[in-house]
Amino acid sequence: MGAKQWQSLEAALGWVGCACANALASLQTVEHGFPNQPSALAFDPELRIMAIGTRSGAVKIYGAPGVEFTGLHRDAATVTQMHFLPGQGRLLTLLDDSSLHLWEVVHHNGCAHLEEALHHQPPSRPGFDGASGLPSLARITVVLLVAAGDLAALGTEGGSVFFLDVPTLTLLEGQTLGPDEVLRSVPDDYRCGKALGPVESLQGHLRDPTKILIGYSRGLLVIWNRAARCADRIFLGNQQLESVCWERSGRTLVSSHSDGSYAVWATDAGDSPTTQPTVATTPYGPFPCKAISKILWRNCASGEHFIVFSGGMPRASYGDRHCVSVLQAETLVTLDFTSRVIDFFTVHSTRPEDDFDEPQALAVLLEEELVVLDLQTPGWPAVPAPYLAPLHSSAITCSAHVANVPAKLWARIVSAGEQQNPQPASGASSWPITGGRNLAQEPTQRGLLLTGHEDGTVRFWDASGVALRPLYKLSTAGLFQTDCEHADSLAQAAEDDWPPFRKVGCFDPYSDDPRLGVQKVALCKYTAQMVVAGTAGQVLVLELSDEPSDQAVGVASVDLLQDREGFTWKGHERLSPRTGPLPWPAGFQPRALVQCLPPAAVTAVTLHAEWGLVAFGTSHGFGLFDYLRRSPVLARCTLHPNDSLAMEGPLSRVKSLKKSLRQSFRRIRKSRVSGKKRLTAGSKEANAQLAEQASPHDVEVTPVQRRIEPRSADDSLSGVVRCLYFADTFLRDAAHHGPTMWAGTNSGSVFAYALEVPAAAANSDRRPERAVEAVLGKEVQLMHRAPVVAVAVLDGRGRPLPEPYEASRDLAQAPDMQGGHAVLIASEEQFKVFTLPKVSAKTKFKLTAHEGCRVRKVALATFASVACEDYAETCLACLTNLGDVHVFSVPGLRPQVHYACIRKEDISGIASCVFTRHGQGFYLISPSEFERFSLSARNITEPLCSLDISWPRDAMRARPRESPKLSQANGTPGVVLGPQSRGGSPDPTRSEGADTPEPPEATLSPTSVDSATSADTTLDTTGDVTVEDVKDFLG
């Protein structure tokens, strides 16, 4: 491609053109999943929005699906409390360092985002702060917003209550309520020299904002009148206090205590002080119980009030359970969760004119999930969450993305998911958090995110928009004999059991059998067929069915060792499949099971539904299976004679890791010694070359290349199959094209097989009598033996071949079969294009030699033009072990741009990354969260929403705006970047004009890979020990 053509391309493509400079200011776009390590919860009943704070200082606000706001405190401190200013779109947060922060939702150009408006760090030492003239605070234990949010009461560990002006976050002088002032109203016999302890609870009166209910740790409850500065009523409790709730009318209080009891106090009966509650009960007594950490009282017009509390379980029998109990009249349900309860709230009426709460829903925030119950439907069923689903309900082991899913297949998957989770016929179950408006346009295409899990399940997620919505769950455990049958019987408790436990939530971190873990998934979106491969060498071929069925599954075994002598498998045994017809619900149902021998984890898999073939690879070799005839076609062993580590299996991982580390360090020492010898011998030549490069007559200087040591042929795990690929191309000669299969290994070997596929299989579910044949056509060995990450064939126009059925059904442009084809082989160190069928080198780019990094993930992505609707270009996207994303042209392999995407220390995030076909990607920023990023300006998925707020703008004093968030919400540093030129300086094409100054944030750029520091640094192979040996091979 000529220079003029490239200039026109750069002006059109989204990731280079200056028209999209603003669109690419931030690489990360949205976070999917459940926040990692939540620590606080808040709900605004007027706006119907919910906030979650985390231990890393993140603040996330959720409303209706698609309405999300994210912020991050500058200090990575734990968010301990959050309080909405009702109806104002403002949020007050308290961190564990006792600092207070005021956040507000601000609208710009019709869209809203979250900004930190003010923060206040009170003095921490007791005494008097001479600078401010205000008394200092001890640690803040509780916060209460009063007077419509303009005033905040701060309870402290020392027993004092301070008052804060919220709009300015300044302490008010002369209004502090100390414990001594309260003790004056307490009888002498109650004082008896004991302190009141920390302030445990502050509650406001719904109808009288001048009254505050104060609860002290010792058990004392005081209704304090702020206007008269006196105690209206005093309740002399003697049990350590945990929580207090004021009933809506104000005539009743309920307090919970550390011994698992709660007490009901009448505020309008008898004289003050009150010594005895009207009701005192231990719901799970009489044996010692754990503390009831929080309690709520919600009244109803029917007279059957709700009491909701957390904890209180019998200490000896169920002290390790995480429970929330719901009591209404004589009905008690003990909600049993699998993770710790953080906080909970009820969705109920808060209008002052209403006499009753009439709770509609109960939302419980747990450490690993959010559960919402419908309190208006009999049985109190759980409400399916449209977002915040726990991605890690079982640990994620792999992921894949399917773009442009046909509408018919989408509807069938949604239908199968609805049959798994039938909704109540009443229709009352609806998501109660509905605040804000989603302004994003309806997605033009549907995207599926598939996640494989440790328990053998594959979950289907709607990844078309901001909210990652669960669609369907496929379970493969039913095909095998495991030890999970007894768990089902234990879950069905008898009706007369006490406490009346009810299992709620879907987070289940325990796997019945680690061999069930899913390692690879592949889906054909045109035939609704998919392949699921697991840890014990099992490869399942499944097909979507709209009706339940009873059928047996055919099992075939493929021996990848090919009777090679001297190898003994020392790992786990294969899974035992069930025999006979098995019941399968509607959804994906297995059609064939292929068992690899030895039963090692499957490392690569690919499916070609048009030919009826599935290819799979392990650490021992690869195989080809004809699932229409239920017969193996090919098995090839890739083991080196010295590769004994591949036979160890995951059970001897520690032993293998030590061996691998030892061998790696030996190679490092060997390479350094040999490098010193070569350096002495070649110093004269090197100096001469440097002098020649420094001469002024040179026009173009060749970039410095790092010396890469060739890998030994007997490296451990050299036989691991890293990638498999099907293509219709020219392999035998330039005149005839046909089906081929390509396999790349860890030792830099690429095997290309020519396939004979009977033509009748294209439009039939049955294979003719003639079997598929495979003949080895080519074998390529890369010079440095770097692991092969991906293989792709390019047609005569340099474009990737379409997926199966795309060309035959006119769903994509037919490939050019007239010009010469080429094959792109991506290894960990370089990209190389070979011509076909001769397999002669055409173009290459040495990424490791130039950039000092190694390839971890690659994908061919289509970048649509911003300026022209119909123009698009296919490029190669690459993620390195340093967390950088590089984009290269295809087939010229010309470097375009690169971004700093993931922290290089985040090995699991780099290993979990998956690219989409349209320039986006996903990677795990925590076990429960995917970060979504975009390389294309035309294809960006980010929250676009607004919020109806009602507070005067002039109420806030003028202040500088906060800079855009430079970190992700989980605390992982993010990057606010634009494209970077190859010289390491910001790309001049990004500037829209000389008069437009760029903000300081936009001038940030990743460290130049061509800087003097990086150019003079030799590649330290000790990093490979952790990344390659530990993560890629053993992970």
From TrEMBL:
Organism encoding this protein: Neophocaena asiaeorientalis asiaeorientalis
Residue ranges, compositional bias (Basic residues): 670-679
InterPro entries for this protein: Lethal2_giant (IPR000664), Lgl_C_dom (IPR013905), LLGL2 (IPR013577), WD40/YVTN_repeat-like_dom_sf (IPR015943), WD40_repeat_dom_sf (IPR036322), WD40_rpt (IPR001680)
Family statement: Belongs to the WD repeat L(2)GL family.
Residues covered by region (Disordered): 670-700, 956-1035
Gene Ontology MF terms in the entry: GTPase activator activity; myosin II binding
Predominant cellular place of this UniProt entry's protein: cytoplasm
Swiss-Prot/TrEMBL WD repeat ranges: 448-462
Low complexity: bias regions: 1005-1025
Lineage: Eukaryota, Metazoa, Chordata, Craniata, Vertebrata
Keyword Signal assigned: yes
Protein name: Lethal(2) giant larvae protein homolog 1 isoform X2
A GO CC annotation given for this chain: plasma membrane
Listed GO biological process terms: cortical actin cytoskeleton organization; establishment of spindle orientation; exocytosis; Golgi to plasma membrane transport; regulation of establishment or maintenance of cell polarity; regulation of Notch signaling pathway
One matching Pfam family: LLGL
UniProt signal peptide: 1-21
Keywords annotated in UniProt: Cytoplasm, Exocytosis, Membrane, Phosphoprotein, Repeat, Signal, WD repeat
Domain (Lethal giant larvae (Lgl)-like C-terminal) ranges: 822-962
Location in or out of the cell: Cytoplasm; Endomembrane system
Domain Lethal giant larvae homologue: residue ranges: 281-381
